[in-house]
């Protein structure tokens, strides 16, 4: 029997449309494999750069109403050392698509990191041009369509693997950035990274995060992310991966109706545990059955048709 | 509204109600917090020192009206904490982690250094449930023996006993605590070994537990950021210490033997020898 | 005894720092007066334009996790007819500052509306250049610093009353827009309007709002709004009014620590009722007392100092 | 997590379980919903017809296992609703508003046109609590008399009575229902008047209640958008019909007499004569 939940995104074959989001448990090969054991259809690594980075000091995570703030600061051992982790994932007996998230402080850094990651065995690359709390990489690039285009173009020239671009919602016009990325050759888009936000403790009068400003994730941002996916879907032809607040199958289906072919899950792991991949997948499956859809493709973007 | 994230993860600001100097380098801080009062032995909290850092600390006291942490001065955060006075405020979130599972029968509790403080609430529970407890307490030197008097005060209730080893022989037998544990295991049978302390020590306890076929529970430490199982900082093999732990069974630890006792991850994810 | 809670913002004297937000119950003189009876320190009207507007058809409001989506579509009777409502508020025995929110499809429309509103008795004007769901007014202006500057400048030239500018969070750089507004003469800033967002019902596969895309308000956006106020406070010298998710006194104090001199309250009225103005005000007052502050000014921006 | 907005405001999609043609222009739709089953008589819901509109409708039936709305075909939304079949889906949120307060003693219930359906759950409650009920039912013509049989079936339990007036005299007395009410008030004393119907009719009932010094509760209609008291669309004077109402006391209504029965607000806020 055909798997209703199977989906192909930019050549990657997923047995189900849930992915581990970037920066969530993706620091080591062992934990990436664990996410696949728990049922993720694909995994994205922690964003890695050219050189090791410590990240910010604690507090790096703070809970707010209906969401989480984080400013971890892109800690990573550097892509060369991280290659070991990539290889470990690919050595798994039941390999699932491994997407390596990368960042760089310049286009040439992006290219260098991409090449090493590709060499080490990445099935695809996800360009993090959307981190809201590290200066000169992330959102500074992702808010500028021509910089995004430049990075995508150069990375595409240098690797054979499909390139995903992870977009920031912290822009006036996400569609403009999405189009720039696609015109430059992006094979898929991920929408969205966290929303720039902050929290201050009233008793101590201090900002809670050591970096003061961080990124908001979780249910609080789902309606924003849904809107981003909906707007982008109208204007581009590459697959979109929804991300932001997916906690239950309903959220995942909502993203798909908006135009996403798959979803990434991050913050929900803190509330639901690793079982969230299975519970979301099962829920999507019963939904498709109940409504008489034969595949995920049938519901992707369905809210646009009337 | 979905009861979205655990209520425990919300930051609370609590007043330091009392401070006790336990050893030259360890101080206990008492505070009130409803959620911590309901914590399980072995659970930990994240302690925020505004403008400085946020660090994980095991609860060394859990009672309906007050809880405590016992802090060893090792670096900036803990030094700053040691300067705090009664009446000062700290931020806390938690409790986090699984805590110890309370088994049955005759148990051995092995504490090394500051690790001992994390075992205090466990010993309290064991005593309450009338377990026969053998407490083995180790430290470099007499001065650093943590909580000895408190343990000694608890144990008579269950006809328990305490035995001490110091590396310089300044108290109890001379040598490492694992040698003492081995002696006991050679002579008697135990239903469970609980341990908390330096990882190399706990690694040796794992080997002993395997040799003597005695189940083990060990409380681990790793660098932490989120404490809620998503950032991946605290991983050991496939486990997250903040969420799947900090207490692991011997069975679990034997699956991560190449890592346990051998290396941990730095804040940037690099492997660091232990 | 001096009122700890009194605050002056761009010449407006408020007895407490809570305001009714724009578009919340502000359609009639009677309901604006009611908000003042319930304890608001100032009231902002529904945004009014030159000509009457019906707004969108229902559903115009939809609840999501921790927030509300709305796309009402700026319904209003046109500023001439609305002048009657303005006059009714000003005739109250216990008048409180009345801020008339206005929008326009061009700079000259803004000016015309401003003049009529000022004439009718507005104590201040709030320029809505931030509505996320009506084309060609609102965010299209608010996302463009030079358009904002133009509107502010022209309105300032034509009215004597203080001019507040309400900013949209749907930009890459809210500080840039804030600075443009202040350089053009804005007397105060309101941060923020709603965040562009949407919700789709999975059972029917339809977007819920008739306009499909709307604005997210409530606790979900508070960390975003706090960040906006914090960022703006560092760079401008005019008073900032915080807005977005204020539900309890803690939220209000958090905004003040970030840099707000007062707060606007909207969505929380649905959860807490009209009593929210009093409960927030009382909470701020006990906070100030408990911490030994003699006035609100002492805590405005306090999280920036260390 | 703060129980932030009322759970009631969350959209639910419900299946139409049954449809009854009440009069040539009124149909009742039955559905199941836990929150509506707990509604108070007089509360209303917002009914979403996807791609068409969302409109306020009083609950005309409230029971543990099924609830209903009774819809008069007047425009696009209600026409579309009338085309819906058993098994089709509609969206609902609510219940909203205050509902009727159940007083004591001998009560008069005055229903005009479709307004009568909003009074059905009230009559159910009154009968259950053994109130003596006089139900006055008015309509333009016999065909449009809503729920007459159902009311008639309920009333015997409390020795209640029903009296009817139609404007064309096709049933009961000829004339408007307020004339009939005046007759009753002239002859007997009542402890409470409940009314729902056209606003001019309810305005007359207000005048009667003042004249006869009998407390009144009237259920009002205004245009609605949010239904949760923030958008300001439904205001009458200082009141929000969706939140402070839809049921108002005579005392409240006498404070907004220049507005009640005289004008309402259009969707753009303009005054519209009633
Ligand atoms: C679950 C758990 C429970 C703990 N319980 C206790 C306890 O009850 N009493 C006690 O004294 N200590 C305890 N620790 C260790 C304590 O967290 C560190 O000693 C403390 O963080 C040191 O911070 P510092 O700034 O003073 O030292 P630094 O100079 O910053 O660091 C000294 C060493 O402390 C460790 N450390 C620093 N930051 C962290 C962090 N965020 N997470 C984990 N380790 C860190 C590192 O190994 C580092 O090399 C526990 C750790 C964990 C993971
Ligand atoms: C609290 C309340 C309870 C109601 N209960 C019932 C009921 O039990 N049965 C019943 O048949 N009708 C009820 N109504 C009236 C019902 O909402 C309108 O008849 C319906 O909205 C008409 O929509 P339409 O598209 O069919 O007609 P349209 O052609 O759009 O409008 C016809 C008229 O209906 C009214 N109307 C339209 N939209 C709304 C709206 N969003 N809110 C309020 N009124 C509106 C206006 O007066 C309008 O002029 C109630 C209204 C309110 C406010
Ligand atoms: C703790 C944490 C760390 C993150 N690290 C990264 C990262 O390294 N790279 C990245 O592209 N996104 C990162 N993100 C963003 C997530 O991948 C995701 O876009 C965001 O959290 C929204 O999804 P969610 O609501 O499901 O968490 C991180 C998020 C969190 C909460
Ligand atoms: C129903 C509704 C209508 C609104 N109408 C307006 C408006 O007309 N003009 C405006 O500037 N803002 C309008 N807003 C935005 C609010 O003034 C406010 O900026 C936003 O809701 C965030 O604050 P809150 O979280 O306290 O609601 C509206 C918001 C809501 C919920
Ligand atoms: S500390 Fe973040 S996963 Fe354990
Ligand atoms: S319908 Fe919005 S206030 Fe009543």
SSE diagram, text form:
The complex is a heterotetramer, with 2 copies of chain A (306 residues) and 2 copies of chain B (274 residues).
Chain A: E1 7-9, E2 12-14, E3 18-20, H1 29-37, E4 42-44, E5 61-64, E6 67-70, H2 79-90, E7 98-102, H3 107-120, E8 124-128, H4 139-142, H5 145-158, E9 163-167, H6 174-183, E10 188-191, E11 195-198, E12 200-201, E13 206-207, E14 213-217, H7 222-233, E15 240-243, H8 249-258, E16 262-265, H9 268-272, H10 276-291
Parallel strand pairs in A: 3-4, 3-16, 4-7, 7-8, 8-9, 9-10, 10-15, 15-16
Antiparallel strand pairs in A: 1-2, 5-6, 6-14, 11-14, 12-13
Helix pairs in contact in A: 1-2, 2-3, 3-5, 5-6, 7-8, 8-10
Chain B: E1 12-15, E2 18-23, E3 26-31, H1 34-37, E4 44-49, E5 53-62, E6 67-72, H2 76-83, E7 89-96, E8 106-112, H3 115-128, E9 132-139, H4 148-154, E10 161-166, E11 173-174, H5 177-187, E12 192-196, H6 199-211, E13 216-219, E14 235-236, E15 239-240, E16 247-249, H7 250-254, E17 263-265, E18 271-273
Parallel strand pairs in B: 8-9, 8-12, 9-10, 10-11, 12-13
Antiparallel strand pairs in B: 1-7, 2-3, 3-6, 4-5, 4-7, 5-6, 13-16, 14-15, 17-18
Helix pairs in contact in B: 5-6
Please explain how this structure is put together.
The complex is a heterotetramer, with two copies of chain A (about 300 residues) and two copies of chain B (about 270 residues). Chain A is globular and about 50 Å long. Helices cover about 35% and strands about 20% of the residues of chain A. Chain A has a single domain, classed as TIM Barrel (Alpha-Beta Barrel). In chain A, a hairpin with a 2-residue loop joins strand 1 (about 5-10) and strand 2. By secondary structure, chain A is an alpha/beta fold. Chain A has helices spanning about 30-35, 80-90, 105-120, 140, 145-160, 175-185, 220-235, 250-260, 270, 275-290; strands at about 5-10, 10-15, 20, 40-45, 60-65, 65-70, 100, 125-130, 165, 190, 195-200, 200, 205, 215, 240-245, 260-265. Chain A has an eight-stranded parallel β-barrel with strand order 3-4-7-8-9-10-15-16, surrounded by eight helices. Chain B is an alpha/beta fold and about 270 residues long. Chain B has a domain at about 5-95: Beta Barrel (Elongation Factor Tu (Ef-tu), domain 3), CATH 2.40.30.10. Chain B has helices at about 35, 75-85, 115-130, 150-155, 175-185, 200-210, 250-255; strands at about 10-15, 20-25, 25-30, 45-50, 55-60, 65-70, 90-95, 105-110, 130-140, 160-165, 175, 190-195, 215-220, 235, 240, 245-250, 265, 270-274. Chain B is globular. Classes of the chains: A alpha/beta (about 300), B alpha/beta (about 270). Chains in contact: A-B, A-C, A-D, B-C, B-D, C-D. The structure holds flavin-adenine dinucleotide (2 copies), flavin mononucleotide (2 copies) and FE2/S2 (inorganic) cluster (2 copies).
């Amino acid at each position: 029997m055909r798997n209703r939940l199977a989906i192909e995104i930019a050549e990657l074959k997923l047995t189900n449309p849930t992915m581990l989001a970037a920066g969530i448990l993706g620091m080591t090969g062992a934990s990436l494999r664990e996410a696949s054991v728990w049922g993720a259809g694909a995994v994205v690594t922690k964003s890695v750069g050219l050189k090791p980075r410590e990240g910010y000091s604690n507090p790096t995570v703070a809970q707010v109403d209906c969401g989480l703030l984080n400013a971890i600061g892109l800690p990573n051992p550097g892509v060369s050392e991280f290659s070991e982790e990539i290889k470990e994932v690919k050595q798994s007996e039941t390999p699932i698509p491994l997407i390596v998230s990368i960042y760089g402080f310049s286009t040439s850094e992006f290219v260098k990191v991409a090449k090493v990651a590709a060499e080490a065995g990445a099935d695809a690359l996800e360009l993090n041009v959307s981190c809201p709390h590290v200066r000169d990489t992330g959102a500074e690039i992702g808010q500028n369509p021509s910089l995004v285009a430049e990075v995508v173009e150069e990375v595409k020239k240098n690797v054979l693997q499909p390139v995903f671009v992870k977009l920031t919602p912290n822009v006036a016009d996400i569609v403009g950035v999405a189009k720039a990325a696609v015109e430059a050759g992006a094979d898929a888009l991920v929408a969205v990274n966290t929303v720039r936000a902050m929290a201050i403790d009233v008793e101590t009068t201090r900002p809670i995060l050591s970096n003061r400003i961080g990124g908001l994730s979780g249910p609080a941002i789902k309606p924003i992310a849904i809107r981003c996916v909906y707007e982008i879907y109208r204007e581009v032809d590459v697959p979109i991966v929804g991300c932001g607040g997916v906690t239950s199958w309903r959220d995942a289906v909502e993203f798909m109706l908006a135009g996403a072919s798959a979803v990434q899950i991050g913050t929900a792991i803190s509330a639901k545990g690793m079982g969230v991949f299975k519970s979301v997948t099962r829920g999507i499956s019963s939904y498709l059955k109940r409504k008489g859809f034969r595949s995920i493709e049938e519901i992707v973007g369905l809210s646009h048709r009337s | 509204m979905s009861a979205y994230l655990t209520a425990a993860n919300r930051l609370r600001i609590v007043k330091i109600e009392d401070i006790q100097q336990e050893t030259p380098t360890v101080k206990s801080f008492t505070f009130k917090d409803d959620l911590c009062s309901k914590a399980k032995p072995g659970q930990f909290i994240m302690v925020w020192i505004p403008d400085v850092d946020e660090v994980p600390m095991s609860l060394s006291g859990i009672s309906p009206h007050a809880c405590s942490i016992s802090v060893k001065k090792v670096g900036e955060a803990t030094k700053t904490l040691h300067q705090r006075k009664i009446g000062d405020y700290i931020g806390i979130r938690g409790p986090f982690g699984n805590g110890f599972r309370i088994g049955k029968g005759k148990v051995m509790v092995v504490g090394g250094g500051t690790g001992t403080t994390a075992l205090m609430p466990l010993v309290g529970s064991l005593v309450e449930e009338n377990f026969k407890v053998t407490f083995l307490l180790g430290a470099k030197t007499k001065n650093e023996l943590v909580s000895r008097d408190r343990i000694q005060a608890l144990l008579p209730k269950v006809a328990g006993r305490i035995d001490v080893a110091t590396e310089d022989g300044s108290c109890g037998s001379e040598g490492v605590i694992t040698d003492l544990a081995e002696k006991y295991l050679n002579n008697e049978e135990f239903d469970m070994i609980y341990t908390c302390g330096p990882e190399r020590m706990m690694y040796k306890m794992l080997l002993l537990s395997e040799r003597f076929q005695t189940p083990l529970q060990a409380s681990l430490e790793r660098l932490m950021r989120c404490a809620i199982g998503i950032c991946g900082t605290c991983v050991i093999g496939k486990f997250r210490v903040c969420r799947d732990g900090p207490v692991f069974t011997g069975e679990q630890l034997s699956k991560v033997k190449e890592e346990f006792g051998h290396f941990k991850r730095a804040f940037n994810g690099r492997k660091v020898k232990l």
